[in-house]
Amino acid sequence: MYSLSILRLALIVFFSSLAMANQAKIEISSPLDKAKIDIKKESQLIYNLTLGNGADHAHAYIDSKEIAILRKMKGSYTLAPMLPGAHVICIKMVNKNHTPIGVDRCISVTVE
Amino acid sequence: MDLQNIAYTFAQLFHNFGSVTVVGGSICALASYRTGAVSRGLTWIVLIGWGIQALSGSAFGAISYFHYGKFPDIKGIALVALGVKILCSTIGFTFAASQLFVNFSIKSNRRIGFLQCGIGILALSSAAVLRWFS
Question: Which domains can be identified in chain A, with CATH numbers?
Fold first, then answer.
């Protein structure tokens, strides 16, 4: 009886901790989605990451090509000059083994 | 405790011990060639070590695929380092197997022993590059 109570308590603590675990989240505050970027100006990718779901850090991509590994939870990255036209900038959360965990955020920009 | 982390830990454990076996075994085998005798026992250890390296290395990718349906996303220098490690394992395993099953002269065995040491050290060095450039 006593051991059953302990087991029940352990299960409650375990499942509560799972429920309370952070959900991984990515916010890109700059550039904004569908923004127009001046080809002559240097632009910054400003982001905010929230770890969770096994995420360890994030990878940044332009048009599916990896451009940076983001280990700071909040920061900025100077984007290299891009060719004129439409581009997709993505940040993907990855685990310690660099595997994308399925949490990502993508924005579209047009370089003019 | 996260099952995924436990799986990665076991893969890492086997991978680390595989590295020690390959490099340490090759150096000990090389030392034994100086006496003229070819230690089959040590060569078996090196062969098993390379096998463990290949299997545990593949396990890292397999665990990622099992959990997320994707392989690790590594690029550039890290990918080259991974390629070098795979090549080292393949060559190292082949050399160790050939030493066991082909009747080489002591001189040839010594040469292969030197190569084994070099390949082991190269694989271990590539692991450091892979770790910090990915």
Answer: 22-111 (2.60.40.10)
